[in-house]
Amino acid sequence: MKVLIEGPFYRVEQTEDGIIKTTGWGSPTAEQIGEYCARHRAMLKPIAPARSLMDASKIGDLSMSARWRFAQELKKNRTLVSRSAVYGLSPQLQTIMRILIRASGRTDLRGFPSESAALAWLRERD
């Protein structure tokens, strides 16, 4: 995989078939998340619409303000991403994410129990 951007709590890579994979770790602050999202958005613009994969298995406990900031920043990426898959969430967060996605009516964002399941969905044709 080709590394596109890196930071103190993340690495963004591109797979051979063009999927953008983000691996996060630690417990970044709301400010750090904002900085990451700005870099990520700038990286996505030339290749949009991208298929996005997020490995959340090593992300620590985020503050409510950090979670809120991340949710707000993700809204800004909707036109840059055709599909987004997340795996590695705790069972509690996986349930919350599923409820929120269902309530929003979104079909371009899903949570998965494994990387292989997430990749299979991202590789499906619309």
Name of the CATH class = Alpha Beta
Count the strands? 6
Corresponding CATH superfamily: STAS domain
Coarse morphology: globular
Summed over residues and divided by their number, the pLDDT gives a mean of 92
Structural account:
This protein is an alpha/beta fold and 126 residues long. It has a single domain, classed as Transcription Regulator spoIIAA (2-Layer Sandwich), CATH 3.30.750.24. The chain is built from 4 helices and 6 strands. It has helices at 30-44, 64-76, 91-104, 115-123, and strands spanning 2-7, 10-14, 20-26, 50-59, 81-87, 109-112. Strands 1-2-3-4-5-6 form a 6-stranded mixed beta sheet, sandwiched between helices. Helix 1 (30-44) links the parallel strand 3 (20-26) and strand 4 (50-59). The relative contact order is 0.16. The model has no long low-confidence stretch (mean pLDDT 92).
Features:
Transcription Regulator spoIIAA; single chain; 6-stranded mixed beta sheet; globular; about 130 residues; alpha/beta; about 40% helix; 4 helices
Write the layout of secondary structure elements.
Elements: E1 2-7, E2 10-14, E3 20-26, H1 30-44, E4 50-59, H2 64-76, E5 81-87, H3 91-104, E6 109-112, H4 115-123
Parallel strand pairs: 3-4, 4-5, 5-6
Antiparallel strand pairs: 1-2, 2-3
Helix pairs in contact: 1-2
Tell me briefly what this model is.
The protein has 126 residues and is α/β, with parallel strands linked by helices.
